[in-house]
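[Discussion] Sanity-checking designs against the backbone

I'm trying to build intuition for which residues belong where. Below is a structure token string of 131 positions. I'd appreciate it if someone posts a full sequence so I can compare it with mine line by line.
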């Protein structure tokens, strides 16, 4: 079994969940909806918050755990944040940018989603590296 702080995994998961609520809420929620041609009423249709947030939390938990496996323990918050920034920007952001080229989605959407994941991984990396 990998040597990972389960407390750090839980805190990293919760932090990315909170960041997502702020990022896709008051910060960029309107721009994100506009890039998808959504409105608040359309998003509420057939929305199951227990299912959506529950699955999102479990995915976040798996993401934090496996990222912790890559980082290891005792890295320090600064290296963890740096490695997280790189993972978010290059691995996730680069993957989203590749999809964006073929899907021809809005560059705004790429910036919003890529920016979230870049900060998400930097935050998770800082927590995982620091605990």
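Best answer:
Here's mine. Compare freely.
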């Amino acid at each position: 079994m990998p040597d990972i702080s389960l407390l750090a995994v839980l805190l990293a998961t919760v932090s990315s969940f909170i960041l997502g609520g702020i990022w896709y809420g008051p910060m960029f929620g309107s721009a994100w909806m506009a890039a998808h041609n959504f409105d608040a009423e359309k998003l509420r249709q057939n929305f199951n918050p227990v299912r959506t947030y529950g699955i999102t939390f479990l995915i976040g938990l798996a993401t934090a755990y496996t990222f912790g496996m890559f980082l290891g323990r005792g890295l320090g918050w600064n290296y963890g944040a740096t490695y997280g920034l790189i993972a978010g920007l290059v691995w996730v952001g680069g993957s989203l940018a590749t999809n964006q080229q073929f899907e021809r989605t809005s560059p705004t959407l790429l910036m919003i989603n890529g920016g979230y994941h870049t900060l998400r991984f930097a935050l998770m990396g800082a927590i995982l590296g620091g605990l």
